[in-house]
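Page 47, continued from p. 46.
Same chain as before, 106 aa.
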Amino acid sequence: MASPPSNIKVHRERRLLELTWPEGGTSLLPFRFVRGRCPCAACVDENTGERMVDVMDVPADVAPKQLGFSGNYALRVEWSDDHDTGLYTWDWLEQLSQEFAAASRS
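Result:
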């Protein structure tokens, strides 16, 4: 299980979520990418695992309205498109960071 980020910053002007990991390294994730990869049941079919909402389905100007913690295992985000049911576990955010970094290199 991934450790919680040691720091989480919202860069509204750059439309980025910055995660600083305790093991070292920083992830910069676009808001739209994070919202479009929401793991909740409204965004991913619980039975098939098929993604129902993807990055291109999300408004380009989406931004977090509010961030909070769910225990010590996840980040809860209320988005400007009024979506607020996703819990982004530290493992999921770490996976998203790796996925975005790989896609950025391509």
